[in-house]
Amino acid sequence: MAVPARKTSKQKKRSRRGHIKLATPAMHYDATTGEFRLSHRVSPKGFYKGRQVANEKQQNND
């Protein structure tokens, strides 16, 4: 069985695991509805870029 010649340092180990993390969603404040929403998504009230693009009734039925 293969055995490493040297102990792996903390720095080497941590740099290898640097990409293993949770990503935070990109949220911002929507002044039209007064709520926070995900970027590039329609708000729960049906607004996008300050304009109404969908009705709440349509979203609830789908």
Automatic annotation (TrEMBL):
Keywords for this protein: Ribonucleoprotein, Ribosomal protein
By sequence similarity, the record places it as follows: Belongs to the bacterial ribosomal protein bL32 family.
Which GO biological process entries does UniProt record here?
translation
InterPro entries noted in UniProt: Ribosomal_bL32 (IPR002677), Ribosomal_bL32_bact (IPR044957), Ribosomal_zn-bd (IPR011332)
Q: Name one Pfam family in it.
A: Ribosomal_L32p
What species does this protein belong to? Lactobacillus rodentium
Q: Keyword Cytoplasm, does the record have it?
A: no
Q: Does the keyword Ribonucleoprotein apply?
A: yes
* Full protein name: Large ribosomal subunit protein bL32
Q: Give the domain of life.
A: Bacteria
Q: Name one GO molecular function term.
A: structural constituent of ribosome
Annotated HAMAP family: Ribosomal_bL32
GO CC terms: large ribosomal subunit
